[in-house]
Amino acid sequence: MTGYVVGRLFAAIPVLLAVAVFVFLLLSLVPGDPAVLIAGDFASPPQVEAVRQALGLNLPLLPRFLAWAGRILSGDFGLSLFSRIPVSQLVAQRIEPTLLLSLMTITIAVVVAVPLGLVAAYRPRGLVARLTMAGAVLGFSLPVFVVAFALVYTLALGLHWFPVQGYKPLSQGVLACLHSLVLPAISLSFLYIALIARVTRAAVLEVLREDYVRTAHAKGLAARKIIVRHVLSNAAVPIITVVGIGFAALLGGVVVTETVFSIPGLGRLTADSILRRDYPVVQALILLFAFVYVVVNLVVDILYAVVDPRIRY
Amino acid sequence: MSAPLLCVENLSITLNTRGAPVPLVRNVSFAIDPGETLCLVGESGCGKSLTALSIIGLLDQSVMQVASGRILFEGRDLVTLGAEELRKLRGDRLAMVFQEPMTSLNPLLRVGEQIAEVIVEHRGVSEADARRQAVGLLDLVRIPDARRRASEFPHQLSGGMRQRVMIAMALALRPALLIADEPTTALDVTIQAQVLTLIDDLRREFGTSVLLITHDLGVVAEMADRVVVLYAGSIVEQAGVNGIFDAAAHPYTRGLLGAIGQLNSGIRDRLVEIPGSVPSPVSLGTGCAFRQRCGAAMPVCHSEPPLLSGADEHLTACWLGKAGAMVPA
């Protein structure tokens, strides 16, 4: 098990390195002189030259990359071109809302979707199965902002159960914070409920055909025990995979939701920074998202091994 | 002789279709006495496994069902018994071992846990106590180093060992009836004999009745007290093991016996096969299902053959035995 985890860890290094090289080259690839870009539209040639010197842009590529990578490793991502705040600080204050929103979304999705998928597999011609499968198509095809506005219109404007928009940070109390995230999380969760319900149904259908499930029935086990110990655990690997990928995708891809509900998260920072050509921030965010994907994949790989002894040994 | 443990009476199983239900097993009757081994013999698709699954209540209800008949087990009719009561019998009084040891165990649970599970379910003992009993059971089915093996996962065991684990699981609560559906078909020949011997020894030790399903007449000769030969869902012949091997009356049984190689016969002797294949249950008309493949078919075979009883409860469903019907076609 330890060897397996160490192996997975080492496999993650080349991925991060490749992303780092790409992100570094991003600045050289954008049209124009990075020094001009960074110095701003109204800088004089000596000012541009000063920036070039300060950032080492006059050096060859390799030493520049090494110097840059060294700064990144020590946590220095440079200054935002737009706000002149250190990038690390800018990103750090945006992580909390996005992380909490993603966690809440994926939790809602799993809690709703896994039982639905399970029932749909057990009673393939039943009402729940039909509704789930039809609802899944709807969940895939409804844009997040449509769901979001519909929820705001009914639950926030109509019934006043939730705030229309805005985010309350954790420092203002856990409950207030979660309360401000309910609507965005529900609107985001539709897609993931659809995805996870479908995958659960397919995985459970597969497992139900297995000989060991028949064995479990032949042993006279109670239905609940068969579902938990024999069916769900064997269907877990594909479910864990979509939940993991879904979570990673959420962390980087909640732009629309964060905009609709005006939540100051990573998604909006990404969109804003790209529009402002704030390259140091974009670089830092790409690195962060790559890192998140690598970590989530690592966790998923470790969970595979926890679930399945055949991978462990 | 005491009353039979299991009494299957006129069992019919049908496949649900959009049109008329298709008969898969028709009017099958047999009985098993306590401690007896009954072999259910026939080609693939003749209804052996369906008959077994209907006894233990594991027919896939969404596609097929018991259409008529009774399955009396310890005085109760399993066909009409409630699902919950049937579940309580399964694994306790009634147990089953399947053909595929490689896939019949849950790959995610230690084999000791899987055996313990059935004990906990039906006896309500503690997990730790059940685990201890599981080690004892592995010992009983002659798995060396049982304590270590109990904490291993199925993929760490060979096919023969996994089948022993299945047997340990089935016999954990000393069931009255063990159903074994081709338990050795997937195993190496050398392991086959060991597993069969194990089943037979445990039957003798615990007085368990065994319903053994097989297409291997060698297995039948070794294990059976009595034999039921099925063809296309119906019983064609039923007799004691000697009656089948010494005085087979039905042309199909004789065909099966003729298809076994004889070691002491000449090398150039060809095996005699039965021509043709089993008719589909959909196209099954009236009369003897075997008549198209039968060398002794007669005009009268177009009507349902009578079940004739001979000496020693030897039953044959064939017009050949009927006096006055012996007119060649």
Structure notes:
- The complex is a heterodimer of chains A (313) and B (329).
- By secondary structure, chain A is mostly helical.
- Chain A folds into two domains: 2-84, no CATH class; 88-312, MetI-like fold (Orthogonal Bundle).
- Chain A has helices at residues 2-29, 34-39, 45-55, 61-73, 87-122, 127-141, 144-158, 174-208, 211-218, 223-252, 255-260, 266-275, 279-307, 309-312.
- Chain B has 329 residues and is an alpha/beta fold.
- Chain B has an eight-stranded mixed sheet, sandwiched between helices. Chain B has a four-stranded antiparallel sheet with strand order 2-1-4-5, with helices on one face.
- Mean pLDDT of chain B is 87; it is low at 324-329.
- The A-B interface holds A 210-212, 214-222, 225, 229-230, 233-234, 307-310, 313 and B 56, 58, 87-92, 95-96, 98, 100, 103-109, 117-118, 121-122, 153, 155-156, 166, 169-170.
- Chain A: One of its GO terms (cellular component) is plasma membrane.
- Chain A: It is a multi-pass membrane protein.
Task: Give the topology, please.
The complex is a heterodimer of chains A (313) and B (329).
Chain A lengths: L1 H28 L4 H6 L5 H11 L5 H13 L13 H36 L4 H15 L2 H15 L15 H35 L2 H8 L4 H30 L2 H6 L5 H10 L3 H29 L1 H4 L1
Helix pairs in contact in A: 1-13, 5-6, 5-8, 5-10, 5-13, 6-8, 7-8, 8-10, 9-10, 10-13, 12-13
Chain B lengths: L5 E10 L6 E11 L4 E5 L6 H9 L7 E10 L2 E2 L5 H7 L4 E4 L13 H13 L3 H14 L5 H5 L8 H13 L5 E5 L7 H18 L2 E6 L2 H7 L2 E6 L2 E7 H7 L3 H8 L48 E3 L5 E3 L12
Parallel strand pairs in B: 3-8, 3-9, 6-7, 7-8
Antiparallel strand pairs in B: 1-2, 1-4, 4-5, 9-10, 10-12, 11-12
Largest sheet of chain A: none
User: Biggest interface pair, residues each?
Assistant: A-B, 22 and 29 residues
Unreliable stretches of chain A (pLDDT < 50, length at least 5) are none
Kindly report how far apart the N and C termini of chain A lie: 7 Å
**Sequence of strands across the biggest β-sheet of chain B:** 6-7-8-3-9-10-12-11
Order of SSEs of chain B: EEEHEEHEHHHHEHEHEEHHEE
Instruction: Let me know the number of strands of chain A.
Output: 0
Alpha-beta classification of chain A: mainly alpha
Could you give the count of β-strands of chain B? 12
Fraction of residues in β-strands of chain A: under 5%
Distance between the termini of chain B: 43 Å
Family (chain A): Belongs to the binding-protein-dependent transport system permease family.
Pfam families (chain A): BPD_transp_1 (PF00528), BPD_transp_1_N (PF19300)
Subcellular location (chain A): Cell membrane
InterPro entries (chain A): BPD_transp_1_N, MetI-like, MetI-like_sf
